[in-house]
């Protein structure tokens, strides 16, 4: 059969004969090149996927370390002298002492909020005063009982330190339960937008 094919090619005029010869030579080379490109593309895709996976894993490690630091800070603020006084003896404090304590507590919330680019707001709820102090407010604010009750909900911190409410993510630290309600509650709201934006930028870096 092959001899018959070559015999037919030999009987063709010179130009078609040259064209067919080129086709016979180039077709296997083209097929080989195509297979090599496909293999190369698979390798490139695997390398890109591996690089992105490594970057995402590294980013998650960074997030874990950041959240661990935030939780340590929350535990430290539980022992804050001003917060303990305001949540237990604010009624007998002088106006000047109470205002100074609130001001120092506001500064602490500002520091807590500024400790991470992933923190949207840092706040403390003080039921005895019926007031809250937050980093994103210029002064002491009214007590929001709905938010307080939602963030005071018990959770297993060993499973997850996060509490999700109304599509918002918080890390909370209630303290000193009295009549099934904490004496105060410290909470930070995390910025989902900042976390997502940083992940996107981190993954696309060269």
What does this structure look like?
The chain is an alpha+beta fold. The chain has helices spanning 2-10, 14-77, 81-88, 95-114, 145-151, 192-204; strands spanning 119-126, 131-134, 141-142, 162-165, 168-178, 181-190. Strand 1 (119-126) and strand 2 (131-134) form a beta hairpin. The longest helix has 64 residues, at 14-77. The protein is elongated, with a radius of gyration of 33 Å.
In short:
The chain is of the alpha+beta class.
Question: Can you give keywords for this protein?
Answer:
206 residues; six-stranded antiparallel sheet; 6 helices; 59% helix
Could you outline the blueprint of secondary structure elements for this entry?
Blueprint: H1 2-10, H2 14-77, H3 81-88, H4 95-114, E1 119-126, E2 131-134, E3 141-142, H5 145-151, E4 162-165, E5 168-178, E6 181-190, H6 192-204
Antiparallel strand pairs: 1-2, 1-6, 2-3, 4-5, 5-6
Strand content: 15-25%
Determine the fraction of residues in helical runs and give it as a percent range. 55-70%
Mean of the pLDDT scores? 77
Helical/strand content category = alpha+beta
Helix run count: 6
Number of beta-strand segments: 6
Strand order of the largest sheet: 3-2-1-6-5-4
Rg from alpha-carbon coordinates: 33 Å
The sequence of SSEs as H and E is: HHHHEEEHEEEH
The N- to C-terminal Cα distance equals 56 Å
Biggest pleated-sheet summary? 6 strands, antiparallel
Low-confidence stretches: 12-23
| Principal-axis shape | elongated
Assembly of the depicted chains: single chain
